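Comment thread on ticket #2218

A.B. wrote:
> Attaching the input chain for the structure job we discussed in standup.
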Amino acid sequence: MMSETTLWIPGPTQVRKELLAECARPMIGHRSKAMTALTERLDPGLKLGFGLALGSSAHVAVHTTSATGLMEAALRGAGPRVLSLVNGAFSKRFAEIAALVGKQVTKLEAPMGSAVPMAELARALKEQGPFDAVTVVSNETSTGVRQPLGELARTLAAFPDVQLLVDLVSYIAGAPVDFDANRIDFGFAGVQKALALPPGISVLCASDRYLAKAKQQPLRGYYLDPLRIVEGHEARATPATPCISLYYALAQQLEDISNGLTLPQKDRKKSGAEAWNARFEEHARMQQVTEAWAVSNGLELLPAPELCSPTISCVRAGDLDVAAFLAGMKERGHVLGDGYGELKGKTFRIGHMGDHTETELASMLQLADDVIAGLR
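C.D. wrote:
> Ran it. Output below, let me know if you need it in another format.
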């Protein structure tokens, strides 16, 4: 029998026992009144999670697919010319999928560990356009780099016809999305990162203008047709049988976050947007603690300080034997992540997100001090 370990990898993240219990509820018919009631529990929390402005006309929805499925769905509703910001493994995937579904793709690349400069984005939009859409990963899980959404919105303000498609996979529920304020047209995420659920379903938010543009696009397919997904959710009639178990878990988690139940004791009385903001602040504090811990051990994070992810810290290993360090942590009951792709063995990643607490993080990092001291 395997001993219990705690996940600090960049996802899937640790799942609370209460949420796992929700996944074990008896099945209901997916065309039943009970399913309609379950689906209606989701929308209030989703609107808070996407940070919709008061009176927003944006549409939230859930679909039974991985986030990669919604990455493809986003592109199926976009026009033919796409500019892809590429600064890591998942933004590269976004560009690759755009090409595979027949888009004309221009890539604007930045080295791993950095973000695409907004001056370069503005230049590309002006000199290589017109483009129908820009694709971006808000939080590169592979490198721990945050691409600031506010800067994107300000840059795109000069190009009002260009839509913004945003991967929010390791960002939503860990930092403020502010969908309307940040001029996002289609944002999506899986639930296995900062939402702290088992993988298997994804969430999305789409603007009216995105949906209007999508209606003009041919060959949107069936299962990944963004119009069919959004309209099916709003009609409480999903295009195909959904993962009902995860709907239960998502409904409970959204309500728990909105009611402050996942917050530190001092913040438990907060609710609604205030509770979500307190969750974001907790994630920011955990990032700061992790960065300070790295420095105390003679290490540094891969990104520049202003680009550090609030949910994932990618740490340069220096002379530290990453494999031995990760093995030592696993022996002590904590699973951390190796570097991704070409960064394997050169970095390691800590997923300080979801329902992890600051106390748990401090305890884990103290054990990490012991492992590093032993290796050195």
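A.B. wrote:
> Thanks. Noting for the ticket: The chain has a mean pLDDT of 97.
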